[in-house]
Amino acid sequence: MTESELLTRNPQSTLHTPHQHSQQQLQQQPSTSLLLNPNVRLESRPETFTASNLINSLETNYHSIVERFGNSPLIETTQYLTNNIIDPKEAKHLIDGFLCGVLVDAPNADKHFTCIKTLAISTDQWMSLLTSFNILTLECFPFMKHSCKQQLLYFIDETLKLQLRTNLDSSFTNICRALSDGTDFKETCQIVHQFAHRLLSSHQKLATFPRNSSFPPTAFALFSRFISDAQLVANAGVMNLESFKAPLVEICVILVRERFPDLLQLGHDLFLLLLRLSRVSQFVPIWRTLLHNPAVMAPKFNGKKIFF
């Protein structure tokens, strides 16, 4: 299908960039958003104007890609993207639209992600895409709709499965930090549980993270906190407590067994976190090893770095 045919379906379809709008125009727009909770107005917060620009770009370009490709079969869309989109700027706008699609249109997330993959690889824009992802997690996460937060996990999980050479360390670390920022506790528990499940399903790919990666210690601190705060989780009434803890405990054990040298970045805090987990049955053998044969955990490790 040619571009003229696609545009004939929707002659008003265009791609937009947020920089076409002044801050005053942004403030005049309705407060409704596809990505953000009702009545959230990022543009009224000077410190989040970059995030506001990004949200505007994602949502505006999402409407454009729905108009252009909404009724097209996936194979037809990807063929068009592969054969016709070579301008990096146009590709960036399309990627923004498809990224928004992943976040707001969960039933069609696979289709949107396939289009992202097609464009980002062919135009070498994965780093730009991950920059947008990091802005969302660092600046917008507390204000995003619950369903969109869940889809952020889908996006980064699917990206990990691609096994690209792109370093995903900061993106995964930022998710952990976003989940530690004190937003609605019940909602956070649900997302933490889903995050742990996703990590378990692809935990073998964690070996691709670089040495001294910041993700393993940040993830261990996050999950161990929720394991230890069992009473708070129980009070939140998220789900059966043991069902909630099971994937978190499993991923923590994997991190200790497979990425212990990275966890040493936590210093004495690692000892405190492990101490809080000492009554968890899966950590009893780990503690025996730490006390009686610590060198097994990491080369030249004797326990002094965390115990004293």
From TrEMBL:
State where composition is biased (Polar residues).
1-11
Q: Name the segments for region: Disordered.
A: 1-30
Q: Which Pfam families match?
A: Ints3_N (PF10189)
The biased composition feature labelled Low complexity covers: 12-30
Q: Which GO terms describe its cellular component?
A: cytoplasm
Q: Which domain of life is it from?
A: Eukaryota
The entry's function note states:
Component of the integrator complex, a multiprotein complex that terminates RNA polymerase II (Pol II) transcription in the promoter-proximal region of genes. The integrator complex provides a quality checkpoint during transcription elongation by driving premature transcription termination of transcripts that are unfavorably configured for transcriptional elongation: the complex terminates transcription by (1) catalyzing dephosphorylation of the C-terminal domain (CTD) of Pol II subunit Polr2A/Rbp1 and Spt5, and (2) degrading the exiting nascent RNA transcript via endonuclease activity.
This protein's name? SOSS complex subunit A homolog
